[in-house]
Amino acid sequence: MHFMMLRRHGLSCWLLLVLCLHSSVTLAGSKVLNMRWLETTPDKQQLLFDLNEPVQYTLFHLPADKKKPHRVVIDFKNTQLVGALAKTPKTVPHLPQIRSGTRNKDEDLRVVLDLPQDLKTHSFLLKPSGRNGHRLVVILSSPRYSPSAQTPTAPSSNTPPSLPTARYTTPLTPIPLPRSSKRDVVIAIDAGHGGIDPGAIGKKGSYEKTVVLAIARQLERLIRQAPGLRAAMIRNDDSYLKLRDRIERARRYQADMFISIHADAYQKGAARISGSSVYILSQRGASSEAAHWLAEKENAADLLGGVSLNDKNDTLASILLDLSQTGTLEASGRLAHHILGSLSGIGPVHHKKVQQAAFMVLRSPDIPSILIETAFISNPTEERKLNNRQHQRTVAKAIFKGIKAYLKQHPVADTQMAQR
User: Fold this and answer.
1) Residue where one domain finishes, among candidates 108, 141, 174
2) Domain stop point among 141, 165, 199
3) 228 & 366 share domain
4) Which of 41, 64, 262, 291 keeps 20 to 30 A from 219, CA to CA?
5) Based on the domain organization, do 81 and 230 belong to the same domain?
C-alpha cells in the first residue's frame, strides 16, 4: 500500500513537473512585439512584424466567397502577440483589415489580412541590424506590380534570406545630358533609408526615412528653380534601395555631386545631444572601395570620364583610381565645408568640423559625395522641428546655400555655371 501511494505521489509530481516545463516553454516562445506599416500605395503595401527572435511561420491565401473577402493568413508557430497590431485607417481603401487570434490551445498565433482585392504576397525574415531586432516583412502587391527579386513565402528554417534587390518605382534611365558647354550641373539628392528600413526612430515615433524625404523634396524644389542646376532624386517615395544601388543610380543620372540626407540618433542622454553634422568618405573607406573597383574593373568603363580599367594592368589601374579618388575627396571636403558653414547659421552643429567615415553611399570614386546628419531625431526638440514643414524648408535652404557657395568658387567644367 505504501508502495502504491509513493508511486501515485511520484507520478503526480512527475506530471506536475512536465506541465510546468511545458508552460515555461510556451511562455519562452517567440513573440510578436509590434506590427507596423512601412509602405502603403494602391499597388503595394509593406507590413513589418517586430519579433524577439526568428519565428517559424507559414503564409497562405484563402479565396473570397459569398460571405468573406480574399484573405492572407499568417500562422506563427509557438508565438504570442504581446504588442499591438497596426490599425488600418478606414479612410484608406486599399489597405487590408487586420485581425488576429490564437490556435492549438493558445500556443500558436494566427494573423488574418482581409483584402480589398486578390493580391500577390512575398515574405522574408530579417536579422537584427542597428537598432532593429528580428523582423518579418510581408509585401502585398497588385498583379501589375512585379518585384525585381523573388523572396520565399514560407521559409522552412529560421535562416533569414538576403534582402530583396532594390526596386525602382520609376524607370531608371539616364537623364539626357549632352556633354556640351551649356549643360546643367546635376545634383543627386539621396534621402536616407526607406521602405523596410525606417532608419532612426524618434521618441514620438517619427521615422528618419520620412522626415529626410521631406527635406530632400524641399531641396529638389530649390534646385529646380535655379538656372543651370538640375536635381536627380535617388528615391522620391517610400522605397527600399540598397546602398550601392544609390551610388549606381547617381552615376546613371550623370551626377556632378551626391548629397545624402539623414537624421542622427543617440541613445544615452538623447535629450541633450543635438545639432547637425556633415561627413565625407574616410581614407579607409576610399581604400576598400578602390579594391572593389579593381576587382570589378571589367565593369568599370564608366569611371574616370569613360576610361576603362579593363585594359590596364593592376598597377596602372590603381594609380588612375587613386588620382580620381584624391580629386573627388578634395572636392567632397570643399563642398562639405560650405554646407556645414551654412547649416551653422540656422542652428547648433554637433561637430564644428567636417567629419570622415566609411559610409557606403559616399564611396563613388568619381562623384563628390557628402552625408548630412540634419539633426538628432532622438532629441525631442529636434524631432519636433524635423516634422515641421517650415523647418524642413529652412534646412533645405541652408543646404542649397552651401551648394551655391561651393559652385561659385569651384564651378563644374563644361556647364552653364562655368561659362558664366
Assistant:
1) 141
2) 141
3) yes
4) 41
5) no
Q: Give the closest residue to 168 by CA, choosing from 251, 234, 124.
A: 234
Q: Is the pLDDT of residue 260 over 90?
A: yes
Helices and strands: H and E segment counts in the chain? 8, 15
Q: What phi and psi, each to the nearest 5 degrees, are found at residue 412?
A: -80, 130
> What would the grid cell of residue 314 be?
593592376
Average pLDDT over residues 336-350: 94
Answer with the residue of higher pLDDT: 157 or 236. Answer: 236
Q: In 3D, which of 240, 218, 84 has the Cα closest to residue 162?
A: 240
54: CATH = 2.60.40.3500
> Cα 214 to chain center, whole Å?
15
- Domain residues for the domain of 283 are 185-419
DSSP 195: T
DSSP 166: P
Helix pair 389-409, 208-224: axis angle to 10 deg: 50
My answer on whether 134 and 213 are in the same domain is no
Torsion of CA 141, 194, 169, 396, to 10 degrees: 150
Contact between residue 148 and residue 165 where contact means Cβ atoms under 8 Å apart: yes
